[in-house]
Amino acid sequence: MPTAREALLDAAYTSLAVRPWSAVRMVDVAAAAGVSRQTLYNEFGSKDGLARALVRREADGFFAGVDRVLAERAGTDTDRLVGVAEWIVRAAGVNPLVRALLSGCWPEQLPSGRAARTAPAPGAGAAQRRADGGVPGVGDVVAAVRERAGAAIEGDRPVEMVVRVAVSWVVAPGPDGGVGEFLRGVLGAGPGG
Question: pTM for this structure?
Fold first, then answer.
């Protein structure tokens, strides 16, 4: 059974499918999660705190996907890099928060990813300190993916280029066949390897 925190984040994410963030009400999120509104405020402090926690959770899930591709993808280092690029594009295609993290474009219907990185207020409790944490910017996301891939890939592979091509594909999709086919051609590997 999910914790109250996870249930609240799930409810907030689900709310985004039916209304813009500005119309999401804390009382509705709490009710959908099956907890009191006070529990929501105790956990996140404010709607902005909930937004930051939601964006951070989606970023963490995205990074876990990158790690999974690197750990589970069979084949050459090129295959693994292409797998990461395909994951980047696929994740951005199904999750609007991941797309915003990768593109830096935060449509009005999403919670703002530009929440200031602020130090928690003096005397803030643990829940408030978690809620006051910042969200990663585009450069932070690209650097984290690059570091993860670079640590998992042996040899002299163009990790930076692959990550940046994938991120650019999120913003402006390329030719039919997708990012995987494009990168295989650039990296000199035939289809599938």
Answer: 0.85
